[in-house]
DNA sequence: TTGTATGCGTTATCAT
DNA sequence: ATGATAACGCATACAA
């Protein structure tokens, strides 16, 4: 059943039915009621393509999800989209997901911008310098970046967590506890968030007059095996540091696994501070959480990014919006002064 | 730039340009080349909505993702969509994600079926009895179920793993090792896959003449804290079984955490067999994997489901297709005969 | 308050 | 091999 048929059925013109359905004020209450109930009764839903073609908007937001080399979607992603997706659904928007190798990402943006399939996009995982931003600006497609790049922060919209400050604080905290040899297990440092975390960590070391030891800095895919392999190799080489900063709870689980295998206990034989995105499937909570952590909900980040983008689209105001959150430093049981003290 | 403008620019009719772009044979090679290069040069992409309206297809597949009570997206989901999404992208399809509370799921299907936004849907997480299947059949929307329900398997398309057999085999394996008190940490048993796993487990126990002990059976959200809490409470009550079957590697990590806290070692103080969906962010591999496991890639399941659905759509053949995989039983270091033997 | 006519940007039908 | 014209199903400017 389409609009025309519904109108015929009601002895009305398509125009009136359309107006009634879309809540225009000039239609009489009695007519509106007739229309609404007939629509519900016949399970009428306007053709999305026809409506979009007519109004020039598609009520959909695009997310281009780059696959890593291992054909993997970053697991943090599922929590981000649960937040964003919830916002979209409540606002009557759909989420369009495009899963492509990194190399094809730009082609997808070009298509999205030209074929009108989406009204805007969320950019995931910005690099230190990221060509996507300039591309999207030149395409005129509204977008919000989850994270930032290094240059020209003020020319586009983003929402980010203060990664620099978070890691500076955490490092400082470890130093205050008396730690000297502090390692870092980071994400890929071509990613902006990871570079900022490293810089915050280095700054705190420098402030305390501690020499940076590159052998204690690791970067890679933030998954369980990363932490395991790093820790395992350090144990084997007998070069275990006094403390570790870890960029995600996933590699942290790997570190703990390697420690347990060697009879070591977190918070006793080594201190750990973990960046906790509050992944819903790996809670680090309880009265005394397992990990001392930097805490910031990635799901709320998704929610917030989505709201920002919808606001840009619906207000027709493309002024850049920025949002910077601070991570909480929450004390758990994985930190303590070094044993030798 | 739209089709008309591109045509004018080329001194051709829109019809010819459209034909050239869409690979129709009747257009001359010379014309086609002119059209193609002009299109590339101007970064022309046909309006998706106009094309969809004209041809009556949208080249998009819908995934309705129900949020659990905790506003959580099942983490297994991200691997499933990385497989499905890759297939879509390569076939020129997009993925439409709708994140809604369980109660609104049917409304979304009704909308999808009527507004033409998607050409088909993948159904996630079927329950033991699931009204979505009948609904989709009545709506005439092509669909593939990831999993099955109990009734009428032959009337719709699905791809599933033989969960019954997998858990029967694993249980039998533990029994053969000499275990008697074997527990089960399962997903919600309102879900079909979880019910089948339980039944396979019970069947093996029955076969061996072992009395089922309901106090050793747990079901819930398959996340890390589930395993931790179950194991913790059993340790506190001094009722630790000889072995556990665990429905996902996430709760398995929680079980291991609780064991470690009490100085217990998997594969020594208790045997574990884990259903391993091969989540890309939690690999259980290596020469000797940490967990003895039932192994089946959920990413490949996503890939396979997507291929099945696209085939149904493009062949215009809605004959139900079924695909049943067997999980591998892979030996790791978390199983051994009971200590008392 | 309701209706008529037109346009949105394609693809498909029927000519030539 | 190419073109004119009519759909596709809606929204909207304009008319009544």
Task: Tell me about this structure.
Two copies of one chain form a homodimer. With 341 residues, the first copy, chain A, is an alpha/beta fold. Chain A has three domains: 3-54, 434 Repressor (Amino-terminal Domain); 60-161 and 299-325, Response regulator (Rossmann fold, 3-Layer(aba) Sandwich), CATH 3.40.50; 163-297, Rossmann fold, CATH 3.40.50. The first copy, chain A, has twelve helices and twelve strands. Chain A has helices spanning 3-10, 14-21, 29-41, 48-55, 76-90, 105-115, 131-139, 163-177, 192-207, 224-236, 249-261, 298-315; strands spanning 60-67, 94-101, 120-123, 143-146, 157-161, 182-186, 217-219, 243-246, 271-276, 292-295, 322-325, 328-330. In chain A, the strands form two sheets. In chain A, strands 2-1-3-4-5-11 form a six-stranded parallel sheet, with helices on both faces. A six-stranded mixed sheet of chain A has the order 7-6-8-9-10-12, sandwiched between helices. In chain A, helix 6 packs parallel to helix 7. Chain A is elongated. The N and C termini of chain A lie far apart (78 Å). The mean pLDDT of chain A is 94. Strand 2 (94-101) of chain A pairs antiparallel with strand 2 of chain B. Chain B binds a DNA duplex (16 and 16 nucleotides) through residues 2-4, 12-16, 18-19, 22, 26-28, 31, 46-56, 116.
